[in-house]
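User: Teach me something about this protein's shape.
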Amino acid sequence: MTLVKELESVESSKLRGRAARAILDVLAGLPEAAQSARWGLSEAARRTPVALALAVLSALVLALTPAAQVQAVAWLIRDAETFSTAAVPLVLLILLVGTGQVLATVDMFTRQRAGIRLQRTLQDSLVHSLARMSPEDMADSSVSADVQVGRDSLQDLGRLPWSVISSLASLVTFVALFVSVWFIAPRAAIVIVLSLLPSVVLFSWAQTRQTKAFGAVGGHLRRTTYLIEQLAQQRSGTEIATFGSGGRLARQITQSQRRADQLLDRLLAQLIHGFLGGGVVGAALLGIALSMIVFSGAGGAGIAAGVLGVLAGIEATRGAGFAIGEVLSATPRVKIFRRVTSSADRPVDAAIVGRVESLEARNVSVRYPGAKAPSLESATIAVRRGEAIALVGANGAGKTTLVRALLGIVATAGGEVLLDGRLASDLALSARLAHFGLMTQEFGRYELSIRDAVTLGTPDGVEVTEEDIWRALAVARMDKFVRNLDEGLDTQIGEQFGGIGLSGGQWQRIALARIAVRGAGVWILDEPTSAVDAEAERDIFQELLQSRRDRITIVVSHRAWTLRGMDRIYVIDNARIVQCGTYEDLVTREGRFRELFSDQ
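Assistant: First, the predicted structure itself:
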């Protein structure tokens, strides 16, 4: 018996500990939850004011309905001796029950519609904030993580105002029922309050626990979804089927899903234990409250009305627990969403600069945070309009860092960049970038119409004519292909949305056309023809070199023959420029250039 008592004492201690932690978790989150609630209501008032007003009105009516039903039941039972005396309370009760059912259903669908509208407007806000972000922000991993959370939270944020209204309405219900039962059995009303509190706390705690757990679970599920997409998508699925390696991905999918399931199972086990303990306490207190009502001497009418009040209170506070839990769990997401939508600085409108006479980098150095050595050290280059230069070097030598320093999307540790003799750092970033057209090896494959995919190279508000698009496609040697398509420029590309499939080289030509239609004074092309065949590569480079008189051209390339027509080649090694000269100069003397291209 002693062992049994010790085990019971330990279990009781665990239950008390869980209850205390649950209460502390809820209380700790209340201040920030209040701020999130205010934000949610203000967003709803600004974006969907009519829906908010209707929701508040219906919530208030529904909140007072249970207490009114208690009074109607008590009235009906007291005056049920004759039809005439019972008619009024009976009709009132029928109206209350009917109104509650109809209004609850209408309220549910109204909130769903309003939630969808609010979600859409929040999405618009997020999208426009993303459109205003600078390249540095987009490259920041912490910003990227916030953006992902913001995207994933849109549905929850769309429900937030209605959860706040439900929480407040449940509080009104709670107070009204307490008052109704107080006139029947005052002490029972107090015990009812105590008996319903565990339900509110537990549901709130459960919601916050689920939110915390779903962060880790969501990571595994996103990976599972990604892996499944690789098997299911035509391009990647065909490659994997060719390799015969689908089983490897299938095993990874199973492992990732199993990790998510294990986390969910652990969470559900915790919730079961928590609700078992809370349920026992709540049931015991409810039993005491019901006993007090039965033996209060209130008569049949009082007993019936009091029992109805207890049952209605249970349902009302259960909804309150869920609603409060949703508000608490939405709080960190609100903070992140507001951070994303408020931190994006609207770029200064800057027209594309189509004529740049000179570009210089003087002793530019770059050291990335946490790096032991500089990624670029004392780099100096100079190029004038009409010239084409090349940057060459092994992977990791510093070519991309130099390009990023020229663009201004990486902080420099020393030196300066000049555009037409003016310090580039004196320009706003958007004005600085307006001088450049950049094509990287990781160019986007935008599955849009050809027209839309090409005009993405120009900023908002810039009118692009069909002649401009055809001229750009000609530079990329893509015009003949497009003219042979039935829908021409309006042809959908990419198979994901039923468009035509393109080869890697054709996608690369579309990307090059984006730079051509942009028409900036400086073109920076990182391996612009790596995916095209030799004949097309020769044609494209011939076009680039022939038309270079109108711009500054900077090419990053690993192919020796593409460098022959360059005015100068800068050889970068271990973060430094170690050689500079024409192709003929560099290939005839010892140095890093010959080491890099000896096999070509």
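Now, about its shape. The domain at 16-343 is CATH 1.20.1560.10 (ABC transporter transmembrane region fold). The first helix runs from residue 2 to 47. If you'd like, I can walk through any region in more detail.
User: That's plenty for now, thanks!
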